[in-house]
Each structure stands twice: as C-alpha cells, then as structure tokens.
Amino acid sequence: MAGLSRDGQGPIVGKLESQIYCIKYTLFCFNVVLWLFGLSIFALCLWICVEPGFNEWMKILELQKFFIGIYIILIGTLGIMVVAFLGCGSALMENIKLLYMYIASQIGLFVFGLVGACVLLDFSTYDSSIQPIIKDVLVRLINNPMHEGSREILRMVQEGIGCCGADGPMDYLNLNKPLPSECRDSVTGNAYFHGCVDELTWYLEGRTGWLAGIVLASCMICIVNSVMSLVLIQAVKKEEEEAIAYKN
Fold it and tell me: What confidence tens digit (pLDDT) does each residue in 21-69 have?
C-alpha cells in the first residue's frame, strides 16, 4: 500500500516511496504558488472593478464589454483558490480518486483561465474589438455638439487622457466642427496628435497587461500540476503493486 514503510518492503518499494515523497511535496508547493497567484488575480480584478471613476468612464463610453473577461477571470480565480486546497490534500493523502478529480479540475481551470484572458485581451488591447466600439461612441459624441451631456463627456475624456477626437484632430475638421480648447495642450497650445481611440486603448492595456500575464502563468501552473498529479498516481499504483508482489 502507499503508506507502507520502507522497512521490510524491499529496495524497489523504498525507492518508489522516495520518489512519491518528492513528487507530492513539489505538488504541494506548486499549489501554494497557484493559490497565491489566484489571490493576486482576485485582488487585481477587484481593484479594476471598484476603482473610483473607472466604472463611470466605462458606463459613459458604453464599454461594459471590457468587464466580461474580468468577470470570467474572477469566477475562475475563486475556483483556483478552492481547488488548490484539494490539490494539497489529495497529494499529501496520496488518494488516487481525489487526484483524478484534481486533474479534471485543473484542466477545467486551464480552459476557463485561457478563455478569460483571451476575452480580456480582445476588449482591452490595440487593434482589438474594443477600438471600433470606442470610435463609434466618440464619433457620435462629436456629431452631437449641441447636447450638453455629449460636450461634457468629450471634454472629460479629452482633457483627462490628453487626446483629440476619435483618430485625431482631423475628425473635427472632416466633420466641419470647431476644434475645442480641450483638444489642445495647455502648455504648448498645440492640438494633441493622438486620437482618443488609441489613448483609451493604451490606458486599458496598462490596466490589463499584468492581469492577463498572471492569468496565463496560472494556466501554465495548472498544466504542470496535472502532469505531476498523473505521475504521482502512476507512482502510487506502482508502489502498491510492488508491495503486494514483495509480500507474495
């Protein structure tokens, strides 16, 4: 059996016990690291969701799709922190059934994390699906200068991040609209070169780059844990077979 002592069990069983000891405590350490990664991801997601002013900007600019990936990752992170305890327990007990359950959960979390990271990056990076959404909203606001709310939103965005129009100052000229004062640098008086689409995208990238990186690193750890768990299962089974054969 997996828990038999080396004494009186033969050299092969003793060697297998040493290997199992090494694998299960390595797996334990990897699960601790995975749990810490999960905690970090959870904290970053909460920070993005509750940061003062950020949610208001997303609602005003109709960019709620940005949060889809955040919510997927949040759910996956809760799974990571729960499953990490299962991994520690199943490894230390050398329980084969629990280890199989753990492997299945790690594969599920890998897929969940990968999907969450892909969705997040698809709505927060340069040349992603978020840029046409931002452009449509900004062009609509520029085309509606008589509406006080539209003017205020444009002023807030352009002053806040230092940009002009959707793709640049030419947006106003092409639409025969006067260039507003918030499109100009308060020091030099020159119009901002970059449009708000690019600036907002870079702004979002700065908030999601580290998060996506940690999520992908967690996905890699899930695969490593699955492989080590499978190796541990094979070693425990082999030890049991050798112990029975030695007795007979």
Answer: 888 899 999 999 999 999 999 999 998 888 877 777 788 888 888 899 9
Three-state SS for 191?
Answer: strand
Nearest alpha-carbon partner for 86 in 28, 135, 38, 139: 28
pLDDT for 212 equals 92
Strands (E), the chain: none
Tokens linked to 196: 């708000």
Residue type, 96: I
In angstroms, the CA 191 to CA 164 distance is: 7
In the DSSP assignment, the letter for residue 181 is G
> The whole model's pTM is what?
0.80
DSSP-derived secondary structure letter, 182 = G
Nearest to 145 by CA among 126, 118, 172, 121: 172
Q: What is the spatial distance between Cα 205 and Cα 211, in angstroms, rounded to a whole number?
A: 10
Contact 228, 30 (CB under 8 A): yes
Token digits of residue 54: 């950020």
The sign of the CA dihedral 51, 53, 56, 62 is negative
